[in-house]
Amino acid sequence: MSTEGDYDCIVIGAGVQGSFTAYQLAKKKQRTLLLEQFVLPHTRGSSHGQTRIIRKAYDQDYYTVMMEECYRLWAQLEEEASVKLVRQTGLLVMGPENSSQYQAVKNTLQKNRVPMVILPPEEFSKHIPNVNLSEGDGALVDTTAGVLFADRALRAVQGQFLKLGGIIKDGQKVSDIKPGALVTVTASGGVYRAKNLVLTAGSWTNGMLSYIGLQLPLKVLKINVCYWKEKVPGSYHVQQRFPAFLQVECPEGKHHIYGLPSNEYPGLMKVCYHTGSETHPDMRDRQSDQSDIDILKRYLTRCFPGLDPEPAVVESCMYTVTPDEDFVLDCHPLHNNIVIGAGFSGHGFKFGPLIGKLLCELSLGEVPSYDLSPFRIRRFPEHLKPSL
Ligand SMILES: Cc1cc2nc3c(=O)[nH]c(=O)nc-3n(C[C@H](O)[C@H](O)[C@H](O)COP(=O)(O)OP(=O)(O)OC[C@H]3O[C@@H](n4cnc5c(N)ncnc54)[C@H](O)[C@@H]3O)c2cc1C
Ligand SMILES: O=C(O)[C@@H]1CCCC=N1
């Protein structure tokens, strides 16, 4: 066997994170193979659908700081691929004025000098018609935020990767990984070898990690992606400058509720609950729990009176969630030519371009551009011992 391998790097999983990683590797002249189990494009993972929120409003500083570069990298891809991927709409953040989460978001924005507007309750309805601000809630707008065109972004980054000479093989389910100086990957269409491997398999990550002696504390959740009909068409439309929104706490449920202005489906606004019920990624459609939809119905009846509180469209997506909702960006503890990007916990799309850059840096043995300590595998020591 040649010690050169077929490729410099194999990336498993062509969702947003694997696609950006492959693109970054190809930019660094690495001979890169991107393997995907489904025929592309597909709707079975976490990166499909037309829209995602992009925002700097976070309660942890490190995400807000990383978002500075993300915006630049998104703009760079827009220019390279001649396509519009980001639409600035602003993000309305609402939550109990004295809650720690709402205050943390406000502080992070102020500390990092992110342009924002605070909306006092008495002025709220003048700026945001058709929304009832809850008693005791504060409201602010992260004006840098907006909507990312997700499906279009995936097409663009995969297209740029191909232009750089990268190879995508889709419809190729990986069924084994053998670590070594050359990593051997067995997929349904062939056996491939490379000096480095990057694993970005989304909700299937632990299945892949079982081949290489590691398990992470990841939960896979089915998310009901709900669209709600405007009673008066256009009242929450992106062209009426209606913003995306994030409700950080409310009486209806303990998780965030978030929404995007109506745009992709005429007359429908997307509003989702930031959690769901556990599932196996291959059994997503058997998970039929709708308690999240009941919470959304109650919240929308109270706060969004211009929406019909019965979902008009329900689509499915998956979150892969870590216990602290921070990502996993690290090398395998025993095989440093295997890099893992996982656990994006329902908020990773906006970081895609930077995740790609960071996983590429880890794979090439370079010093990462950011402090990756919040994202290290060793923060889960109990999960390291039994499986290694
Ligand atoms: C409803 C919903 C709303 C969201 N909203 C936002 C938002 O507003 N803003 C934001 O920033 N983020 C948001 N997110 C989160 C974001 O979309 C995810 O963090 C991101 O898409 C995760 O990408 P990924 O590449 O890790 O996973 P995936 O997109 O699932 O990619 C993993 C890929 O690996 C492939 N794969 C797995 N196993 C194998 C195998 N054996 N062989 C070959 N290929 C394999 C899979 O088929 C898949 O294509 C949202 C997510 C959901 C579900
Ligand atoms: O990442 C995002 O912006 C969205 C909204 C908040 C909860 C998760 N995803």
Name a few traits of the molecule.
388 residues, alpha+beta, FAD/NAD(P)-binding domain, D-Amino Acid Oxidase, Chain A, domain 2, 8-stranded mixed β-sheet, 29% strand, binds the ligand O=C(O)[C@@H]1CCCC=N1, L-pipecolate oxidase activity, sarcosine oxidase activity, flavoprotein
What does this molecule look like?
By secondary structure, this protein is α+β, with helices and mostly antiparallel strands. The chain folds into two domains: 3-47 and 151-218 and 323-384, FAD/NAD(P)-binding domain, CATH 3.50.50; 91-143 and 219-321, D-Amino Acid Oxidase, Chain A, domain 2 (2-Layer Sandwich). The chain is 26% helix and 29% strand. The protein contains nine helices and 20 strands. The chain has helices spanning 16-27, 61-81, 100-111, 121-127, 150-163, 205-209, 291-303, 352-363, 381-384; strands at residues 7-12, 32-35, 51-54, 86-88, 91-96, 116-118, 137-142, 146-149, 167-169, 174-178, 183-187, 190-199, 219-230, 244-247, 257-260, 268-273, 277-278, 307-321, 328-331, 338-342. Strands 5, 6, 7, 13, 14, 15, 16, 17 and 18 form a nine-stranded mixed β-sheet that branches. Strands 1, 2, 9, 10, 11, 12, 19 and 20 form an eight-stranded mixed β-sheet that branches. The chain has a three-stranded antiparallel β-sheet with strand order 3-8-4. Helix 1 links the parallel strand 1 and strand 2. Helix 1 (16-27) crosses helix 8 (352-363) and helix 2 packs across helix 5 (150-163). It is globular, with a radius of gyration of 21 Å. The model has no long low-confidence stretch (mean pLDDT 96). The site of ligand LYRWXNCF has 8 residues, from loops. Residues 53, 55, 246, 256, 258, 274, 346-347 line the site of ligand LYRWXNCF. Pfam families: DAO. Keywords: FAD, Flavoprotein, Oxidoreductase. One of its GO terms (biological process) is L-lysine catabolic process to acetyl-CoA via L-pipecolate.
